[in-house]
Amino acid sequence: RGGFDSPLVRSYGYPEGVTLMDFASPHMKPYVDSHWAKFPPINPMWHYVLGVINVMLFILAIAGNGMVVYLFNKHKPIRTPSNFLVVNLALSDFIMLTSNCPIFIINCFNGGQWSFSYLNCQVYSALGAVTGICSIWTLVCISLDRYNIICSGFSGPRLTKGKATVMALFCWILACGIASAPFLGWGSYTPEGILTSCSFDYLTQDIQTKSFNLFMFTVNFCVPLSLILLSYVFIVKAIWVHEGIMREQAAKMNVKSLRSAESNEQRAEIRIAKTAIFNIALWVICWTPYAAITLQGTLGDFSALSPLATTLPALLAKSASCYNPLVYAIGHPRFRQAMTLHLPWLCVQEELPKSTTTEDNGTSVANEQNLQGRRNSQNSSV
């Protein structure tokens, strides 16, 4: 209790002996775990800091994910089955932050308490669960697609629109099924951390809650992570072997490199794979802390589960929804070409195909290249 009455707590303007639980709305207190009553209130400045961070995440989510969807609809050459999965990822990320961030921001700037009903808490949590699980499994599908292209070669079975649609539907159906379980009595949703957000309950120690949490940890973290890592281990190995063969052939022909003779498509696929590897690494960094926190709570060890220690990892996990489109847009050559053509104000310079007759929304790519050439000429003259 001494910590509650410390000068630091009193300096925030709170009465002596006040706890974090005292900041919960009266109608929400029955749903808040008693664990949070063990902690004094956090510095009020944290609410404003977290609110501002979520405002920035909200803007990035709309801009980044919206850009991916816009370019996919605008630029015909990138409407491939593989990129359909990227758009599915952008869509789930877009829904996650646009559905969660506004509510979190309102709570942060409204005294740091959950300002809505318990039903809103459940819906908030369910939307976060659906979109989070869908994003995770979409990344698995992208990894498997990259594995098929890089390791099986262009002679292997290619991803079709039908297969991509089935994979996307699988991600959404799986996510909706798991997220609906708490409404049916398996697990539950509850306020967490500093009580400005809600998530699934990882503190209650009954068998229903623990079994649900262990299922979530296994199906939505361990299994996807294993599939992703396994896919990219083989991808990296294939790229390494490919680079070795090219160096060996170049040495035999007494030239520095054979890259000028490589297939542009093959090089593009390898570049996409490298981008995807970076994106997956970023996902692991963002989601592992929160997965570790929830597992620790499920196993009954609450020693490190302070309000901020649970809120910050949750925020880091959701921030992955902003990084995904930025990484793919920056690293994907065809998306960069689309940005060069349709969003020139972003100042992205990507070399366009030299010859093609593919139509893009009624305008040939050849004509687009002529426009790009005139633009470059104007820049040169300036």
UniProtKB/TrEMBL annotation:
GO biological process terms on file: phototransduction; visual perception
Gene3D superfamilies linked: Rhodopsin 7-helix transmembrane proteins
Residues annotated as domain G-protein coupled receptors family 1 profile: 64-328
InterPro entries: GPCR_opsins, GPCR_Rhodpsn, GPCR_Rhodpsn_7TM, Opsin, Retinal_BS
Residues passing through the membrane, by range: 45-72, 84-106, 126-144, 165-186, 214-240
Subcellular location as annotated: Membrane
Highest taxon, organism lineage: Eukaryota
Major subcellular site: membrane
GO MF entries: G protein-coupled receptor activity; photoreceptor activity
Region annotated Disordered, chain positions: 355-382
Segment forming the signal sequence: none
Topology in the lipid bilayer: Multi-pass membrane protein
Cross-referenced CDD domains: 7tmA_photoreceptors_insect (cd15079)
PANTHER family: OPSIN (PTHR24240)
UniProt family annotation: Belongs to the G-protein coupled receptor 1 family. Opsin subfamily.
Name assigned to this protein: G-protein coupled receptors family 1 profile domain-containing protein
Organism from which the protein derives: Meganyctiphanes norvegica (Northern krill)
